[in-house]
Amino acid sequence: MQAYLDFEKPIADLESKIEELRHLSSEGEVNIADEVAKLHDKVERLLNQTYGKLTPWQKAQVARHQNRPHALSYIRELFDDYTPLSGDRAFAEDSAIVGGLARFRGRSVGVIGNEKGDGTDGRVRHNFGMARPEGYRKAQRLMSLADRFRLPLITLIDTPGAYPGIDAEARGQAEAIARSIETCISLKVPFVTVIIGEGGSGGAIALAVADRVLMLEHAIYSVISPEGCASILWRDAERAADAAAALRLTAQDLFKLGIIDAIVPEPLGGAHREPKAAMAVVGQAIEDALSELTGMPGAELRLKRRQKFLGMGEKGLG
Fold this sequence. Notes:
The protein contains 14 helices and eight strands. By secondary structure, the chain is of the alpha/beta class. The chain folds into two domains: 6-53; 59-310, 2-enoyl-CoA Hydratase, Chain A, domain 1. Helix 6 packs parallel to helix 8. The longest helix has 19 residues, at 9-27. The chain is globular and about 65 Å long.
């Protein structure tokens, strides 16, 4: 069932009318095809108008939409022969980060992603995509495994941030994130990241220091959540919309600033309206990126990746 965001109320009203007319048509002899077609045209125009001028805060809401496909959805749709690997070989398994070995369009690859989970039980099981240190240590293990066997690495980013609990801090959350970034930098295999939803803080960058950083059109990527930023700057989480605008967290802003390498277009109305179409476009974007990187010497990949991230910030905010 489609869930609507606050700013989508006019769209929800029109689509509700379409469903009512379809229900009437199925019960009687009245032909209402023309009226339904007109309403569909109105919905499309309204979607174009609405999604053509989303504010940064509205994009944050879209990036968090409950029906938006998550990492495991992409893995099931785009990868064959996926073999999940678990545990950090030191403390525990962390379901907020999933990953393993798979085949992507004929290539053997390593794949890792932040998984938020679906439904209440799924979200609790995956801790809403917020990993503890053991999750990042598992990611390091999988990255190193891909590097050892010369497998291209693909990561799918969708997390509000690393888990901020006392137990995570006690087990070395900051160190685990730093080591993950170090591992990303050191890889000698092609490495592609896609920000598919919410890219929050160190929890995202720990898996995203890649040769090619792709970002979905309505995803967000930021050092802190808009609510967290508003609470710190203005002591008022209700000013999240102001914070979202100040953070420059949209794909369009980040592309201009050189933080990401490409924007992946979403279906009209966002990836949550047509998940399969959105995932197909992401699959092609990954294929294109891997094709550019395949054949480059490992030492060159590592050097260029390092230079790329050390050079960030040179473009002004303009």
